[in-house]
Amino acid sequence: MLDQYNPLLVGLSYVISVLGSYASLQLVTAIPEAVTGVDRRRAILFAGLVMGGAAIWSMHFVGMLALETDMPMAYDILGTLGSVLIAVAACTLGLAIVGTGQFNFDKLLPASVFMGIGVAGMHYGGMAAMLMPAEIKYDLNIIIISVLIAVVAACAALWMAFQMRGRWQKFGSALIMGVAVCGMHYTGMEAAGYKMTGEMPEAGFAGALAGEYLGMASVVIAVGVLILNVWVARWYQQRPVVPT
């Protein structure tokens, strides 16, 4: 089958992952120094939503839209929603570990593992939600490499975000986190092989969504979540510092 990528959409997927990562890291690294425990937990939830929803989930489906094939493709709605929940939950937990209290290397490794799990879980969960007249067979070795890329790059991004507090250093951290998200996604795509079956599987009880509509929806969601994150970040910056 035809199997190639649209370079413009590949570039867009990376930009989305970088912007989402920057917004999330900027928020979560500022929280421990500025707000109370309740506000900190709320901020971590927002950061996890932005990282899992905008940086990872939206990037994934724009990346899938970038894949040009000659077969019909749709996505099971329930499976797709499950994949975004995996990303948000894993990223929220990882950011909660590294963003609470004083940063140290004992927190860095487990946080990086959870962030890597969020990226990989989103990708392979999203792939499982694909509806197409083909079966997917994976190369286990490449799967392992893709997960390692996500974990190692997430570790580097988190270290930069918490050790180098300048705006440009934070943006550099987001660039690396974008490599984690996109590197895992496109390496994971290389792990997939397709065997044509000629039969389109049925969607679950929640129905299915055509790939092009989901790609457009993911861009809209990414923009909406980023706007929400900017508003929340400004709200926190205007609050007085309260000792904990």
What does the model show?
By secondary structure, the chain is mostly helical. It has one domain. It is 74% helix and 10% strand. The chain contains seven helices and seven strands. Strands 4-3-7 form a three-stranded antiparallel sheet. Strands 1-2 form a two-stranded antiparallel sheet. A two-stranded antiparallel sheet has the order 5-6. Helix 1 runs parallel beside helix 7, helix 2 crosses helix 6 and helix 3 runs antiparallel to helix 4. The protein is globular and about 55 Å long. It starts with a strand and ends in a 6-residue tail after the last helix. The mean pLDDT is 80.
Topology:
Elements: E1 3-5, H1 7-34, H2 37-66, E2 67-69, E3 74-76, H3 77-99, H4 105-128, E4 130-131, E5 134-138, H5 140-163, H6 167-190, E6 192-196, E7 208-210, H7 211-238
Helix pairs in contact: 1-2, 1-6, 1-7, 2-3, 2-4, 2-6, 2-7, 3-4, 4-5, 4-6, 5-6
